[in-house]
Amino acid sequence: MSGFFSDKLAALEPYVPGEQPRDMRYVKLNTNESPFPPAPAVLRAVEAEAGGLNLYCDPACTELRAAAAALYGLDPENVLPVNGSDEALYFAFTAFCGPARPMAFADITYGFYPVFAAVTGTPAHIIPLREDFSLDPADYCGLGETVVLANPNAPTGLALAPAEIEKILLSNPDNVVLVDEAYVDFGADSCVPLIGKYENLLVVQTFSKSRSLAGARLGFALGSPTLISGLNTVKFSTNPYNVNRMTQAAGIAAIASQDYTLTNCRRIGENRAYTAGALETMGFRVLPSKANFLFAAHPAASGQVLYRALKDRGVLVRWFDKPRIRDWLRITVGSREQMDALLAALKTILNDERGA
Ligand SMILES: Cc1ncc(COP(=O)(O)O)c(C=O)c1O
Fold first, then answer.
1. Where does CATH 3.90.1150.10 sit in the chain?
2. CA angle at residue 84 from 83 to 89, to 5 degrees?
3. Which CATH superfamily is domain 7-36+259-355 in?
4. Ligand 1 binding pocket mutation candidate from 89, 110, 292 (most atoms within 8 A of CB)
5. In contact, 275 and 342? CB cutoff 8 Å
6. Buried/exposed 339-353: b ≥16 CB within 10 Å, e otherwise
């Protein structure tokens, strides 16, 4: 490590994103993107906006905020547009946590939470999920700490009902409860309707998954005006133009293309059921997912062996070299053709394993 760097940097273990191969040879099922292109109105809006790139964008994202507020049934002061929901998470760790203000989260959850904890000097209070990977809300009740829950959780796909999360909110009135709803559009119930009721609730959503905009980087923090103003202080202290001109235009058009989004979510739900059934027939254990991915393990082959063998056959899935989940694969639910390619490759691999 270079002498130029601070002690904090020297100790930092950065987040490792899923592979993004440049050659596009793979059936790419490793980072939970949408297999569908952005809505046609999004493509038109981005093209129309490109001529204005010589000028800074609106730092308040006025039109986008208004459109998002209408979409979520909120007021504009409840909404902060962000450069991907990762930025909202970072703003939240910066605004609500720190050396004397721990953050509680599950042992098996989104891998960026421990990294944001480290970069903001926040002690991580890690709470193990149950044996079956479900989360016991009682573990978070009365904690007196800031809490972050991914709901549905990643990489398990399991979701809590908002009534369960309400217990956590009620019992931690002086601390923020952050609900990361990156995958909520694929079948879980959102906590957004609770925002008017709980000043300590912050919901984070993304347009990367259900709205096919992973490459545009757009997400939203949704919460009480108090919480949103705290996040705005962080934003205007770091990057006031955090959502660029083309992404603001894309977001407004994506919100106006709600039928397109709903159709795609329905298609992903159908492909998820189809793939889960086929995996179970092959002997996989598959968790009941409410997200656009499946978490699956096979008794006859380790996660690492399956990940490598799939990659050799041109199918990229996510394998985490971490305690408790080494035998599992996280598989993005894509188009029917992608799912058939995955299933065909797995059949061959499992046959080879049996013959070996
Ligand atoms: C649980 C969870 N939260 C947040 C994100 C970040 O999404 P983005 O920054 O693309 O909005 C991801 C990305 O995969 C995720 O899995």
1. 7-36+259-355
2. 100
3. Aspartate Aminotransferase, domain 1 (3.90.1150.10)
4. 110
5. yes
6. bebbbebbeebbeee
Element (H, E) at 276: helix 258-281
Report the separation in Å between the CA atom of 14 and the middle of ligand 1, taken as the mean of its atom positions.
Answer: 15
Name 184's Cβ contacts closer than 8 Å, sequence gap at least 6. 151, 152, 159, 190, 205
Rounding to the nearest 10 degrees, give the CA dihedral for residues 121, 14, 333, 254. 70
Pocket test for ligand 1, best of 85, 109, 218, 320 (most atoms within 8 A of CB): 85
183 alpha carbon – ligand 1 mean position (Å): 8
Residue ranges, comma separated, of all CATH 3.40.640.10 domains in the chain are: 40-257
Residue 347 Cα to ligand 1 middle (Å): 30
Mutate to test the pocket of ligand 1, among 112, 113, 242 (most ligand atoms within 8 A of CB): 112
Question: Where does ligand 1 bind, in terms of residues with CB under 6 Å?
Answer: 32, 84-86, 110, 150, 154, 180, 182, 206, 208, 214, 219
- List per-block mean pLDDT (blocks of 10 residues) for the chain, which spans 356 residues: 84 88 86 98 98 98 98 98 98 97 98 96 98 98 97 98 98 98 98 98 98 98 98 98 98 98 98 98 98 98 97 96 97 98 98 78
State which CATH number among 3.40.640.10, 3.10.310.40, 1.10.10.10, 3.40.50.2300 fits the domain covering 40-257.
Answer: 3.40.640.10
pLDDT in tens, 50-97: 999 999 999 999 999 999 999 999 999 999 999 999 999 999 999 999
Query: Do the bridges between strand 328-332 and strand 293-297 make them parallel or antiparallel, or are there none, so unpaired?
Result: antiparallel
